[in-house]
Amino acid sequence: MIKFLRACCFAAFVCLSHAVSAAELPAKLVGKWSVELVAQPGFPWWHQIKYPVEIVIENDSGYFVDQAGNRCEVENYFYDEEKDVIVLMHCAETKSSNVVPPFYMISAKDGKLIGKVQSYKPLFQWLGSKTGN
Fold it and tell me: What are the extents of the domains in the chain?
């Protein structure tokens, strides 16, 4: 079942990202951002899953540097205009082939970038502050 869910999530992401990756992003999402975790109760998924500590979002690409210092080029993403979020995946492999790979849902509110790390369920959140254009 997990392999099936993993394959479905990945297939949907690839199809959607190729279909909409050229969409113009709102200016509030574009730029260079410094990221910090949001304090939250429960299992510390942020120790197990890579998340950005720095992220650059451009209209057609971008990159982020995760907490281990690895740079991940983002060439494909999905921008959902209805929900006003960017959906993207990390370029790193998961620790196990029996898990649904995590993805990031990124939005902006009140000048902050809000990142939600999800798999088959919500895992944790982070906040970004703009550091450049």
Answer: 2-132
